[in-house]
Amino acid sequence: MNTSRSEPQRAHGETGKRAPKANKSCLPCRVRKVKCDATVIGLPCSSCTSRQCAKDCVLHVRKGRSRQSSTSDHSDCQNPPQTEPDLLYLNILNDAVKETTESSQHHTISNTPYRSRPEESFTPRNCLWTKLPQLDDIDNEYLAKKGVFDLPPPQHLDTLVKTYFDHVCTFAPVINRADFIRGYQSGDCSLFLLHVILTPASLHAPVDVLSACGFASRSAAQESFFSKAKLLHNFAAEDDPLLMLQGSIILCMVILDHPTDRDFSYWFHNAIRLATKLDLRDTCIREDKPRKIIKLYRRIWWTLYVCPFSHIFNVFVNTRRSRLLENTSAIKPRTEDDWEAEDVSGASSGLLSVVTPQQKASPVALCELSRIFGQCLSIVINKPHQDPRQMMHPLDTWRKSLANKMHVGGNIGTDVYYLNIQAMSYRFECILCRLIRRRLQQSQHADWSEWAKERLRSAILELDMISMRVLASGTLQDFPMPFITTITALLALHIESALDPAETDLVRSMARISISQTMLVLTQGKEIPALKRALPVFEEILAKKNLYPVQPSVLGQAPTQSQSQSQDNIMADAYTSPNAQFNIVPSQLEQGESNLPLYGDFLGLDFLDDWRLGSWNSLFDVDMGSQGQAE
């Protein structure tokens, strides 16, 4: 008999039973509901090969009717949402310079994920994570071969878990920390949720810990943990919808160093569906559950609410997907009292640190900012004839009180949480001002347009100052992913200004200086997977357009204090004197070169996972009813 590679997997040790029947489609194609040619050409199929996920291409085995199948009904992924443009600001830049950047479409996946030695992995605690009782032997065997049950040695695993709660959880507090640690230490926590939290933790963990776990890079570590979490999700290994909701929200924060069909859009869609299933919004309104549960639900709900604001801007593209987030006024605003009451001195054994006042205040401030931004955006979109200069007053008032709300005192220049919120506020202001300018291009309100232009320049300058503080302190690794994408958006703004012939020579020249400074900041985080993906594209564009005002070899070296202060002063002069002329004109800017059409709002749609630009000519021109909908 010809045993080709497309032969279906068979259960071991079965005698006198009908062999399991294999589906015609592989598991990834079955989930995505696309045509599969695995039975014709064998594994991997053409679809998985083209999407560069050959390692996941396996034929799904259908069990008999008398047995309960755990893999035949992956309810959480039967209807994945349509994905939207991935790393959109990079695609926009590629289109703007009319060049194809192939380096952004290729990636390398580590084929050597961590495989622990038996004596390290199978400790008494880890032995509880070697088989999932809710799955049958075939599924458990498959997951074991994929390394799902392989965990780092206990001491390194503890470090990774602590890293998550120190650097990630505080920005999205959707887990009761003490409860999770108690389950983790007893070996009774969700294996799905454990792999989920290890995924973003790998971005902040010490390099020597990742190396000791066998990972060659942060990208390899993140890819390994993400793949295992995804497999457990696909196999419906976790049947608690609350745990699935918490995991989906956390995975919304993950950006790999390559495109994936399990992007923000997918996990956000899944989170919305699960939150609806749990009746999350109405429970928060009624508050008819124990106080501990209400606090957790409120934290989850408000994290869901700010998620599109913090990470991408897609909730406004698809209003159906945001039905859960309606009627926010019916739910009490987020407060610091929503944090769980916990005693970290007992069962935590050093895995939990005391939550600082800044950490408690950060989600509250982000909720307030998101609501202000949503109100301003509604005015810009729905009331185009209203003077936009008045709408910024709530934002300005909020900023004046932010330092007190964040309890930062005199540390406003160094506190990670304060700088992150400030950066988000100026990013939102850039979105609003660019949108106002686009909508006023054909109107007669020249004074409104000029006001929006000045506010945009001011917001960009503030982002420059924040990025320079982060560069000087070398703390980029401590910031959450939304801050990272804010800096990449800032770089795109500077490139837009440098190549805009409608701008003054001085503004274009200052933009070139800012490009170099922003690249210095991003180079500090070159091992972050999202930046490993973004930097080569930016570098290619800058090189082709000769936008480096300094030699590229200098990148990676922080400027001296005197140089930084001098450059800050120059930038300030440039932005406060926009009509001044400067005698350095970029040689590549020809008189007839047209303005760069930075389609869409890359400031908000930073990292959606699909490389198709398609009809994204303008974020707010998209038919809001034409996108995929959440269940």
UniProtKB/TrEMBL annotation:
GO molecular function: DNA binding; DNA-binding transcription factor activity, RNA polymerase II-specific; zinc ion binding
Entry keyword set: Metal-binding, Nucleus
CDD domains: fungal_TF_MHR, GAL4
Keyword Ribosomal protein listed: no
Domain Zn(2)-C6 fungal-type: 25-59
GO biological process: DNA-templated transcription
Annotated region described as Disordered, given as residue ranges: 1-22, 100-121
PROSITE patterns in the record: ZN2_CY6_FUNGAL_1, ZN2_CY6_FUNGAL_2
SMART domains linked: GAL4
Basic and acidic residues compositional bias, start-end: 7-17
Pfam families from the UniProt entry: Fungal_trans (PF04082), Zn_clus (PF00172)
Protein name: Zn(2)-C6 fungal-type domain-containing protein
Source taxonomy: Eukaryota, Fungi, Dikarya, Ascomycota, Pezizomycotina
